[in-house]
Each structure stands twice: as structure tokens, then as C-alpha cells.
Amino acid sequence: MNLKSIFSVVALSALMVGCSSDDLTNEPIPTEGPANGETISGYLNVNINLPTVSATGARALDQSNDQFDDGEPSEYAVNCAHLVVFDTDNEATATITSVKAFDDLKPWNTDASTTDNITSSAKSVIKIDAPQTSANLGVLVVLNDENASTHFPVGTTFKGLFDAARILGDDILENSTGFMMTNAPLYDNGSAKTLVSINPNAIYNTREEALMATPKDVFVERVVAKVNVTTTTDLQNSITIDTKNDTEITKKTYKATIVGWGLDITNKKSYPVRNVSDFATWKGLTNGTRFYSQTTGLNRIFWAIDPNYNGLGTDGTIDNNFNKITSVADATDLDAPAYILENTFDVSHMIRTQTTRAIIRATFAPDGADAKTFYTVGSSNTIYDINGMQTLVKQNAAQILEGKSDPTKYSFAPNTSVSGSAGEHSIQLGDVKYNDTNLNATEIEALNNQIGTIYTYKDGICYYVARIQHFGNKYTPWNPGDATYGNDDADGKYLGRYGVVRNNWYELQVSAIKNLGSPTIPTAPENPDDENQYYLTFKVNIHSWAKRVQNVIL
Fold first, then answer.
1. Burial 353-367 (b: 16+ CB within 10 A, else e)
2. More confident residue, 120 or 220
3. What is the distance between the alpha carbons of residues 102 and 97, in angstroms, rounded to a whole number?
4. How remote is the C-alpha of 332 from its chain's centroid?
5. Of the candidates 457, 246, 392, 439, the residue with the CA atom closest to the CA atom of residue 428
6. Pairing of strands 383-384, 461-467
7. How far is it, in rounded angstroms, from Cα 331 to Cα 324?
8. I need a labelling partner for 453 at 20 to 30 A (CA). Which of 131, 212, 258, 486 fits?
9. Nearest by Cα to 180 from 217, 219, 139, 148
10. What secondary structure letter does DSSP report for 28?
11. How many beta carbons lie within 10 A of that of residue 411, not counting itself?
12. In what order do the strands lie in the sheet with 374-377?
């Protein structure tokens, strides 16, 4: 699958905001240069391209789920650029020798063809310090990172970029100066390659010589992923459900209307460069071709390792590793995107407590009416309005409480612990009276045992969960009734089924709401991600960026 740029066209004056660089001069490299192993200065011609997935690229499997979109200008703006130079292109041993800022990127070229999948690109000649060597050097481009020299310090090995000391926090999501971007790993001759190889002969004595040379292409990607929630034009959101008032149960049509959403269980940390160190293992799995493109062009890799990939590490808890939300506000713009860090895991950690999910907030109300507080009881989906709930309590109390069998003598006030807040409730002392006398604790306990848990949907609000899939059913099929990853080929069948990978755009497209949701944000249990019952139908679209559409049924 080819790569496509995500750079913005920016004014040259704006490009270097916050960046520093050595002044470029045209002085030639001395004819008698330093000895081997010492440092020399020279000029390198670089062409920077931002990558995405090609709609015409061919993975071994059908790619109908992959769609492509350049995104918004703010998502591919570039305000700062650095070149990180390694002493070799061998990523097993490569060590950083210098970090230099670009200060003369040419205006961005947006005349991309449909075949090369480049949104925009920019050429520049940069003066670098490099070791005197006959072997190829390795380079890494870093965009929109004013602290590049700190994040990529001289003396750090390429492998060391994935040590704990190099892990970045979620403050990199702040994009006032553009999203941070680094080299995209590519599939090259059977292996993964992140550093771009530079032959020493491509480093020239003068700026003029470098300008005349063919530039070296570097493809970069955002370190963040993008998520948004949409609805289909033919959204099925009308539900016929039993409704109980004070006298009878009738079937009534309700409409679920999505009013907001938020992302839960999002990663707090990320590597500065995508970690594909296990690529050789992935490639050898059953259906391992899902992990990379196999075209004749630029071939992208589709999976990654994050800092908590196979556990939570030494910092211990879910809370230390993931951001969790406690509320979802109404959205003024439902389609507005959110940006998050990469969140991937091995199959043994593909569980709900570690999987990024969208919490979708909806109002649930009779068709044509305003949303109001309502109730359900136990495992029943029957909806009770306040009058129906009062009748239910009175009737059950009259049935089970000795000497108190007249339902007309009971009172269950509308303003009780049950109606005060959303969520699971039981009847409390003082809620129910008989002949204006409160029921005692024993009677309240018996009544709760008879009725069961009462669920309060405050103001008619309910919540649905959509866990974000990466490969999904297209490449990692799982069907209700299948074993939850408990077989000898679990990695081959399911690795990457769920997850969030950088530079991917996950669009959760809700097509149907078929059931009543939860009255509060559901707790994520330590269960496998897949389950046999779904309440939300959705489709994940992943775009250029790579865009994945996930169809969601609620």
C-alpha cells in the first residue's frame, strides 16, 4: 500500500517558529578532510513527504475498509522541522550523531498525482554534521517538535528510542504548532525499515552542488491517531419497547438521538517513533500479510508496539497508564474529531480494561416527545415512567408485606434516592410509607429483594460503548460463539483485531441503535474485547491519514 503526504502548505516565514538552526553557509568542505570516524560538515538535499495509505494499494486481502482523506489543514501543518542523523542505517546499532533544524524548506508542493498518493512535499538543502565514513548513514525527520534535541539526544541509539527514558507523555497531543511527525516505517525486502539510508556521496561540499542533486525522499507520519463519530443517512434509531405507566403496559416507539461522545481508556504515553521491532514475528504469522503492504511502490506497515503493549509495566495500574472519563457532555459538533496516542497490545492483553473505546451519549425518548427521567428494573427492558415506578413499588409491597396488603395506602415519593441520580439504585429507608408510616429496615430489604435493582435514566440519557477495532472482522474475523482467542493460533487469527495505531483515522459510523443503553458510563471489566451481545452497530473507517470505518450498531 502506497504512502500519501499529510503536510500542509505553509509560508516560509511561519515554518521555523520555535526552531533554531545553525546558519547555513556555502563554505566548502576542506579538500583534506578529517580522518575516518571524525566529523565533517556537508550539504544534503532532502524531499519530505507525509505518508498515508493508497486506495489502490494491494494487500493480500480485500481493502474495501480502507478509505483516504487528507484531513484538515491544521492536521498537516508544519511549523518546525529537524533532521536527526545516525552514524549508520543499521537500526540494530545506529547511534545519533547530530540533530539539525531545517531553516529553508521550500514552499510545499500540493500538485500530487493520484498514483503517488502524496498530499504535499517540500524540498530542502540542509547542512549537517556527519561522521566521516564509507558506510551509509541513517536519517530521521522530526516535524513540529521544538524539543527534538531533547527527545532525540546525541548518543542515543535507534533502539534506545524505545527505552523508558525516551517515552513521551500525552502532552504531545497539544497541537498549537502542529502535530508531531516522524519517519514512517516501510516494508523493504522482507523487513521493516524506519531510518532512511544516505550514501556519503550524497553529502556535498557546497550548497549549490546539493541543490543540483536528486533529493532523498523521506516519508513521515503523525504520532497521533484521529477518531470521530458519525451516523449514516439511514440511521435506524426507532425502537419499540414495552412501557409501564400507572395502569398498564403498552408498546411505545422510542427514538435514540446521539447528542455527544467521548474517548475512554486512552494511552498516556507513546514512543517518539513507531516501534515495529516485532515485524519479523508478525510477518510469519498466519495471515501475516495483514501487517504490511506488498505493492511495487512504497509499502507501509500496519501495526505497532506501544509502551504498555504486553502489560502495564512497573507503574502498575490502569489509572497510571490510561486516561479515563467520568462524563460525556453534549457536543455542539458531533462530527468534531478527537486525537489520541497509539494504544496497541498483544492478544493476551486484548481486554476491555486496556482497549480504547468511544462512549456515545444519547437521549432516549418517546418519538416526538421530550426526554424525561425513566426507569428499568432488573434484567427487564420494560420502561417505567415515574407513575409506573410508583405503582410497581406499591403493588410489590402489598404482595409481600404481611398486614400491609392495601396498595392504595402506600406512598412512594417521586423525589427519592431512586430518582435523584442516574445509575443503579435500591429503595432506601424513608422512600416508602404505609399509612404515612415509614417501612422498617426489614421490610425495605424484603421489598428490594422482590423488585431487584432499579436503573434510573436521568433526563432520558443513556450511554453506549464502541471499542475501537484496527484490523476488525475484515482481517481478523471473530464470530459470536467462537472461543475468545483461546487457541493455538491466537496471534495469527486475532493480533491487531482491536487497537489504535498512529496516523490512522478511525471513524465510528453508527448505523443502528437497537436497544436501550446504560444509564451511566459502563465500567470496563477485565474480559476479552469480544462479546456475544451487542447493542450498538457501527463500522470503523480508517482514512489517508489511513482511515478505517467501523460500522456500529447500538
1. bbbbbbbbbbbbbbe
2. 220
3. 16
4. 21
5. 439
6. unpaired
7. 18
8. 258
9. 148
10. P
11. 14
12. 423-425, 454-457, 374-377, 383-384, 238-244, 249-264, 357-366, 461-467
Q: Which residues contact 77 (CB under 8 A, 6 or more apart)?
A: 8, 10, 144, 178
H-type alpha helices, 169-213: 207-212
**3 state SS of 31:** coil
Q: What is the 3-state secondary structure (H, E, C) of 302-346?
A: CCCECCCCCCCHHHCCHHHHEECCCCCCCCCCCCCCEEEECECCC
Amino acid at 393: V
C-alpha cell at 194: 524506519
Which DSSP letter does residue 382 get? Answer: -
Q: Are 65 and 551 contacting, i.e. CB atoms less than 8 angstroms apart?
A: no
Instruction: Give the separation between CA 549 and CA 554, rounded to whole angstroms.
Output: 16
**Pairwise pLDDT comparison (125 vs 497), residue with the higher score:** 497
**pLDDT of 3 strictly over 50:** no
Say which residue the cell 565514513 belongs to: 133
Average pLDDT, integer, range 57-71: 48
Using alpha carbons only, how large is the chain's radius of gyration in Å? 29
The DSSP string of 121-147 is EEEEEEEEEEE--SSPEEEEEEES-TT
> CA 516, 518, 520 angle in degrees (round to 5)?
150
- Distance CA(90)–CA(272), nearest Å, equals 19
Residue located via cell numbers 486481502:
61
Residue 77 phi, psi (nearest 5): -70, 145
441-451 and 386-400 are packed helices; what angle lies between their axes, rounded to 10 degrees? Answer: 110
Helix, strand and coil content of the chain, in percent to the nearest 5, comes to 15, 35, 50
Confidence of residue 360 (pLDDT cuts 50, 70, 90): very high
Task: Give the residue ranges of DSSP H helices in 380-471.
Answer: 386-400, 441-451
- Kindly report the length of the chain: 554
